TrEMBL record:
<comment type="similarity">
    <text>Belongs to the GrpE family.</text>
</comment>
<keyword id="KW-0934">Plastid</keyword>
<comment type="function">
    <text>Essential component of the PAM complex, a complex required for the translocation of transit peptide-containing proteins from the inner membrane into the mitochondrial matrix in an ATP-dependent manner.</text>
</comment>
<keyword id="KW-0143">Chaperone</keyword>
<dbReference type="GO" id="GO:0005759">
    <property type="term" value="C:mitochondrial matrix"/>
</dbReference>
<dbReference type="GO" id="GO:0006457">
    <property type="term" value="P:protein folding"/>
</dbReference>
<protein>
    <recommendedName>
        <fullName>GrpE protein homolog</fullName>
    </recommendedName>
</protein>
<dbReference type="Pfam" id="PF01025">
    <property type="entry name" value="GrpE"/>
</dbReference>
<dbReference type="InterPro" id="IPR013805">
    <property type="entry name" value="GrpE_CC"/>
</dbReference>
<dbReference type="GO" id="GO:0042803">
    <property type="term" value="F:protein homodimerization activity"/>
</dbReference>
<dbReference type="InterPro" id="IPR000740">
    <property type="entry name" value="GrpE"/>
</dbReference>
<keyword id="KW-0496">Mitochondrion</keyword>
<dbReference type="GO" id="GO:0051087">
    <property type="term" value="F:protein-folding chaperone binding"/>
</dbReference>
<dbReference type="GO" id="GO:0051082">
    <property type="term" value="F:unfolded protein binding"/>
</dbReference>
<dbReference type="InterPro" id="IPR009012">
    <property type="entry name" value="GrpE_head"/>
</dbReference>
<dbReference type="GO" id="GO:0000774">
    <property type="term" value="F:adenyl-nucleotide exchange factor activity"/>
</dbReference>
<keyword id="KW-0346">Stress response</keyword>
Length: 263
């Protein structure tokens, strides 16, 4: 009986040892886990503390950076304001200078315009005057060439004898032609001078003879030798005349040269 008991007990020892070993292993695992948890908690606390410190440092740095940026922005704004004011002041000065320059240029151009306008007006008037003078010269030269024909008509009229029928017919023909010439002269502004009994005027008359006269006073035209003509108030041809030397003069009549009459 005793042997069996010991044998049963001897058979249970390995099992007990195995269980004890398992318990030790479990206990060791718990201890290791507990130790690891403790280390992790300490490490987490340390990490949290380090994070907080770093966060605080970053906050301080960010605050300082923000403050510096704010100060820098203020300085930049002040610089921009000063630069803007300086530019505005400079722009006003430049605009005033440009305005003064343009005003001077405007006055100069206005003066040039006035002078050019005056020169052009004088040129236009001079051209008109020159054209009128040229037209008058051409007209005068043409009429001077026609005047001898008119003189011949005057002489022919003196030779006609209207007493006969033939003479009357010629006289009528002559009068018709002469009237046409006179009408043309009138249309062109030509008018004959009536000089007999007028005071001698060297600007209008040319004295060919001087003779005493009991009828006319001195320097009065006594006779017309060749008719003079005017064109619009301007002498076209001087009248050739006889001039009285006065009544009771015993001096013989003298012939006056053309050169002497103009002096």
């Amino acid at each position: 009986m005793n042997l069996n008991l010991y044998s049963e007990r001897g058979a249970g020892l390995p099992r007990l040892c195995k269980e004890a070993t398992s318990l030790q292993y479990v206990l060791i695992q718990h201890l290791v886990l507990a130790s690891m948890n403790s280390d992790m908690q300490n490490s987490s606390q340390d990490s949290t503390n380090d994070f907080l410190e770093i966060s605080n440092e970053l906050t301080d740095i960010d605050g300082k950076s923000t403050q510096n940026e704010s100060i820098s922005d203020e300085n930049i704004c002040e610089d921009k304001t000063e630069n803007s004011q300086s530019k505005d002041s400079l722009s006003l000065e430049e605009l005033q200078s440009a305005y003064n320059t343009l005003s001077l240029e405007k006055e100069s151009l206005q003066g040039q315009y006035v002078r050019i306008a005056a020169d052009f007006d004088n040129f236009r008037k001079r051209q008109i005057r020159d054209q009128e003078e040229l037209r008058l010269q051409i007209t005068c030269s043409t009429l001077e060439a026609i005047l001898p024909v008119v003189d011949n008509f005057e002489r022919a009229r003196q030779q006609l004898d209207p007493q006969t029928e033939e003479g009357q017919e010629l006289h009528r023909s002559y009068q018709g032609l002469y009237k046409q010439l006179v009408d043309i002269f009138k249309q062109m502004g030509v008018s004959p001078m009536r000089v007999e009994g007028e005071l001698f005027d060297p600007n209008l008359h040319e004295a060919v003879l001087r003779e005493p006269s009991d009828v006319y006073a001195e320097d009065i035209i006594t006779d017309e030798l060749q008719r003079g003509y005017q064109l619009n108030g301007k002498v076209l041809r001087h009248a050739l005349v006889k001039v009285s030397m006065g009544p009771g003069s015993q001096v013989e009549s003298t012939q006056v040269s053309s050169e002497g009459s103009t002096d």
